[in-house]
């Protein structure tokens, strides 16, 4: 009896996996190494081209990295499976069952992130080069991996965020694949002032900034509150990477404009959005 | 001049000449190669440059006058003549002049037609006047404001004179002609809505290969000059090459200059050389030997992109952008409005690289450098003017 069970198991194993003699380990090594080397090369070359080439192409080149990597890995896996496994429907069910148990007990979090990463490649809630806010952190997405993405904040802190974050929390994307994003500079002033004059002066501050993107609108909005009036200057820089210089330019020249008008800013100015 | 372009066209309809497809690909490849090799590579001398000398200015002036305007004055005269004489037309017209013009194109046209010219405010008053008086547009006959770029400074206090002018133009019964550079108008229209007052915005149509051939090749032929291509040693003026295709040097020139005649003339001047008579005796260099024997001919060397100062490319882009928007700025104004760390050294670097030139008290983008400057600003992502 025991011999029968053993021989059945051996038969299953022998039909699930190809014979060792039939498996070309050289071919497998070539696929794995070739895929790995190509991915590494793309991760170096495309960002290099993006940073040195024309600005309008930058986001396209950066965004191509995760897509190319996913395609390469998919092709590699499709090439490897028939090399190692005897591909039949029954074997598929056996492998899927074994994989389900392994994933359920041991790799649940990892697989959740990987699946979210695949979704992120197609749904594109963020791409390399985008500026995103995750929780309290705002930064540029530098790379999108299979399990996580890496962002660098304006303070030059690198943050690794698992893709599984997109199942549970909002990810705010400031530019969503475009080359510019809205910049908001906020000024909170004493309520006793000429609103039209302040609005016109702040509009001209944005309209005359060297960093302004001409084709996007400039808007000045006012919002009263208990202790003063908040003015928000909303405009777009010509390039995402100029957003902090643009914000600084708007803030400093906006303050000068308010001083010229004799309008006092209220202490405890609300932070810029 | 049977083929000269004769029309003003709506600004939106301006169609710059295009390179042939393979030349476009070659150009894109060249830009990538320069970007990957770094700025220094593009600074290297052209291949074979050592075999040539610069052409004396007097000789160049006979072939491509430094202040040449092509057919633009004729286009303005024909396009505006009926309107000046009172035939039906929009009350306020805008003529957009392509950038880097070598002279006051609109003002000269106004003088030819005896129109009244409204002078701009003093440069110092653009910022210092807290509440400037609106300009007086009263009078009879058409009034011309030749250059809107002199009515504002891109400074938070520098738009008041311009707004006063636009308000006055909007309500006057008089016919008003506003002149503006292509980049000036792009800024004023898109950011300040200046286009609302204009019933018509037009610009001289592009000088294509045929127009440039009539103008520049005609001038070279009249001066009895022979011009040969340094890459293949063929005759540039050969009528068989006048096919508008990739073999036609004038088609390439028209595309590079985006149809702007003075830019084409400057690029043309930049690319002409004479053979160096004191060749070093390299027996293997047949081409050089031929060039020395053909010492009277001029040689057309390949055009090469000029690059921004590599130590502060972003600052240089902001500087050149500001200069183009005003169609010329003084160093004082640049210090006021361009947010760069060291404006004066940056100006010196741009002068050194022939990107800008002094024009009286102003600094302007050099016409021959305009194609490279425009491409650099586009690569930096800055908003562009037309053409």
What does this entry look like structurally?
The complex is a heterodimer of chains A (273) and B (387). Chain A has 273 residues and is an alpha+beta fold. Chain A has three domains: 122 residues, no CATH class; 43 residues, SH3 type barrels; 79 residues, Alpha-Beta Plaits (2-Layer Sandwich), CATH 3.30.70.100. Chain A is built from eight helices and eight strands, in the order αααααββββαββαββα. Chain A is elongated. Chain A starts with a helix and ends in a 12-residue tail after the last helix. About 2% of the residues of chain B have low confidence. Chain B folds into three domains: 116 residues, no CATH class; 133 residues, Rossmann fold (3-Layer(aba) Sandwich), CATH 3.40.50; 71 residues, Arc Repressor Mutant, subunit A (Orthogonal Bundle), CATH 1.10.10.10. With 387 residues, chain B is α/β, with parallel strands linked by helices. In chain B, 41% of the residues lie in helices and 12% in strands. At the A-B interface, helix 7 and helix 8 of A face helix 1, helix 8, helix 13 and helix 16 of B.
């Amino acid at each position: 009896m025991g011999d029968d069970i053993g021989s059945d198991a051996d038969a299953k194993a022998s039909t699930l996996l190809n014979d060792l003699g039939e498996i070309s380990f050289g071919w497998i090594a070539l696929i794995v190494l070739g895929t790995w080397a190509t991915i590494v090369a793309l991760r170096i070359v495309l960002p290099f081209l993006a940073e040195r080439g024309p600005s309008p192409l930058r986001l396209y080149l950066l965004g191509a990295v995760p897509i190319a990597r996913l395609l390469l890995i998919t092709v590699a896996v499709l090439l490897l499976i028939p090399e190692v496994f005897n591909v039949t429907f029954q074997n598929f069910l056996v492998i899927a069952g074994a994989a389900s148990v392994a994933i359920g007990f041991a790799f649940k979090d990892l697989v959740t992130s990987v699946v979210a990463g695949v979704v992120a490649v197609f749904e594109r809630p963020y791409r390399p080069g985008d500026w995103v806010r995750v929780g309290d952190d705002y930064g540029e997405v530098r790379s999108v991996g299979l399990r996580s993405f890496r962002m660098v904040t304006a303070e030059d802190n690198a943050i690794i965020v698992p893709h599984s974050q997109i199942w549970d929390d909002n990810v705010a994307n400031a530019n969503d694949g475009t080359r510019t994003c809205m910049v908001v500079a906020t000024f909170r002033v004493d309520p006793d002032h000429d609103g039209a004059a302040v609005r016109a002066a702040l509009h001209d501050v944005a309209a005359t900034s060297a960093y302004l993107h001409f084709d996007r609108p400039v808007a000045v909005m006012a919002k009263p509150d208990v202790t003063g009036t908040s003015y928000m200057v909303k405009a777009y820089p010509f390039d995402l990477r100029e957003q902090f210089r643009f914000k600084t330019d708007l803030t400093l020249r906006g303050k000068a404009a308010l001083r010229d008008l004799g309008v006092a800013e209220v202490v405890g100015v609300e932070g810029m959005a | 001049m049977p083929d000269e372009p004769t029309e003003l066209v709506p600004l939106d309809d301006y169609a710059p000449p295009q390179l042939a497809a393979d030349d476009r690909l070659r150009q894109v490849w060249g830009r990538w190669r320069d970007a990957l090799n770094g700025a220094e590579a593009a600074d290297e001398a052209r291949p074979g440059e050592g075999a040539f000398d610069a052409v004396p200015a007097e000789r160049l002036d006979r072939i491509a006058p430094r202040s040449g305007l092509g057919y633009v004055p004729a286009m303005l005269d024909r396009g505006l003549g009926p309107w000046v004489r009172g035939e039906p037309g929009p009350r306020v017209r805008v003529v957009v002049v392509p950038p880097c013009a070598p002279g006051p194109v609109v003002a000269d046209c106004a003088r030819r037609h005896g129109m009244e010219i409204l002078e701009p405010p003093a440069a110092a008053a653009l910022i210092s006047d807290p509440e400037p008086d609106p300009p007086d547009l009263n009078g009879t006959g058409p009034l011309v404001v030749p250059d809107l770029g002199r009515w504002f400074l891109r400074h938070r206090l520098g738009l008041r004179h311009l707004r006063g002018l636009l308000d006055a133009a909007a309500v006057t019964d008089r016919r008003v002609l506003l002149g503006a550079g292509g980049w000036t108008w792009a800024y004023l229209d898109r950011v300040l809505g200046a286009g609302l007052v204009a019933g018509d915005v037009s610009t001289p149509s592009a000088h294509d290969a045929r127009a440039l051939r009539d103008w520049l090749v005609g001038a070279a032929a009249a001066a009895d000059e022979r011009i040969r291509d340094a890459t293949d040693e063929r005759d540039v003026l050969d009528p068989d090459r006048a096919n508008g295709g990739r073999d036609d040097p004038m088609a390439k020139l028209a595309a590079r200059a985006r149809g702007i005649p003075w830019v084409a003339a400057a690029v043309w001047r930049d690319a002409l050389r004479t053979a160096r008579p004191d060749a070093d005796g390299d027996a293997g260099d047949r081409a050089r030997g031929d060039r020395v024997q053909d010492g009277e001919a001029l040689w057309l060397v390949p055009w090469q992109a000029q690059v921004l100062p590599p130590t502060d490319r972003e600052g240089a882009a902001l500087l050149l952008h500001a200069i183009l928007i005003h169609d010329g700025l003084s160093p004082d104004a640049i210090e006021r409005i361009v947010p760069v760390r060291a404006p004066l050294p940056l100006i010196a670097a741009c002068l050194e690289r022939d990107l800008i030139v002094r024009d009286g008290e102003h600094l302007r983008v050099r016409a021959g450098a305009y194609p490279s400057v425009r491409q650099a600003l586009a690569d930096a992502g800055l908003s562009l003017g037309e053409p």
